[in-house]
Design goal:
Length: about 260
C-alpha cells in the first residue's frame, strides 16, 4: 500500500559536515516526485535518509523527523532492515547479483530476510514482480540463467522487480536511467508511470526532460556556496516548476543559467 512521506526539519550530516539542511516536504502516495538540482546539493543524501540508508555510511547521521504515514522511521526500536523493505531503493547502476539466476535475483529479498516461500508462492512472486517490472515476456523462458546476462536496461528492470517483489510502500530511485541507452530509458520511464498506480515513487534525476516527463511534483534543491548545506528551494507541481516557478533560483536552474 502506497504511503505518504513527510519530513520535518530534517538535517543530514557526514560527521560534522551538514550536507542538507532543514528539509520540510510532504510526498503524496501514488505519485511520482522528482528531486532536481545542481551537483552536490544533497539530492542523493536526502533520498538515502528516507529509507535509513544514509546511516550506513560511517559517521553519517540525520536529525529531524521522517514520517511514513504516521510512523517515525527513526524512532527508537524501529528496525532499519524493516524500513528498507518498506521503502525500497533502485540505484544508478543496475546491480543484480550477477551470478545468481534471474529467479534468485527476484526472490533475493525473501532469502536475505530469512523468509521461506513455498514453490507456488515463489512462482507467484516471480511472475507478479517480473510482470510489474515489464520484464516477464522477455525472460520467462530463461528464469534460471544468470541476471548478469541481461542487457543494462533489462538488468535495471530486474532490480525493479527485485524491489517490488517484497511489496514495498515506497520506491526510491537514484538516477535509475542515467547509465542506460535512450530506448531502455524510455522503458524505465514508462514503468515509473505504471508504478505510481501502486507505490509512492521518488526519483533523483539530472535530466530535466525526464523530470518533466515522469514526475507529478518536482522538488528543486540548491546550495548557496560550496561547503554550505543543500536546501529545498521550491516544491510544486512539475508543470509549475517548469513553466512558472516562484523562485528566481529555480527559474535560473531550469532555464540552464547554472548547474
Ligand atoms: N560519503 C560521504 N562523505 C562525506 N561527504 C559526502 C559523502 N557523500 C556525499 N557527501 C557530500 O555531501 C554533499 C551532498 O552530496 P550528494 O551526493 O547528496 O549531492 P547530489 O545533489 O546528489 O549530487 P550529484 O547530483 O552530483 O549526485 C556534497 O557536498 C558531497 O560532497
Amino acid at each position: 500500500m502506497a504511503k505518504r512521506i513527510q519530513t520535518i526539519d530534517l538535517d543530514c550530516y557526514y560527521g560534522d559536515f551538514k550536507a542538507v539542511s532543514d528539509i520540510n516536504i510532504e510526498i503524496e502516495p501514488r505519485s511520482v516526485t522528482a528531486f532536481i538540482g545542481p551537483s552536490g546539493c544533497g539530492k542523493t543524501t536526502f533520498l538515502r535518509t528516507l529509507n535509513r540508508m544514509h546511516e550506513v555510511t560511517p559517521g553519517a547521521s540525520a536529525r529531524g523527523k521522517i514520517l511514513l504515514d504516521d510512523e517515525d522511521i527513526n524512532a527508537p526500536g524501529v528496525d532499519p532492515v524493516r524500513v528498507r523493505s518498506t521503502v525500497g531503493m533502485v540505484f544508478q547502476r543496475p546491480n543484480p547479483f550477477p551470478t545468481m539466476s534471474i529467479r534468485e535475483n527476484v526472490l533475493a529479498g525473501y532469502q536475505l530476510n530469512g523468509i521461506r516461500l513455498s514453490k507456488s508462492e515463489s512462482e507467484n512472486v516471480l511472475e507478479r514482480s517480473l510482470t510489474g517490472a515489464n520484464l516477464w515476456g522477455e525472460v520467462k523462458d530463461r528464469l534460471d540463467r544468470p541476471g548478469g546476462g541481461l542487457s543494462g536496461g533489462q538488468q535495471q528492470r530486474l532490480c525493479i522487480a527485485r524491489t517490488i517483489a517484497i511489496e514495498p510502500d515506497v520506491i526510491l530511485m537514484d538516477e535509475p536511467a542515467s547509465a542506460l541507452d535512450p530506448i531502455s530509458t524510455l522503458a524505465i520511464e514508462d514503468l515509473i508511470n505504471e508504478l505510481k498506480e501502486q507505490y509512492t515513487v521518488v526519483i533523483v534525476t539530472h535530466n530535466m526532460q525526464q523530470a518533466a516527463r515522469v514526475a507529478d511534483r518536482t522538488a528543486f534543491f540548491n546550495l548557496q556556496a560550496i561547503g554550505e548545506p543543500g536546501k529545498l528551494i521550491e516544491y510544486d507541481d512539475t508543470t509549475t516548476i517548469f513553466n512558472n516557478p516562484a523562485n528566481q533560483q529555480t527559474e535560473d536552474y531550469i532555464s540552464g543559467r547554472f548547474g
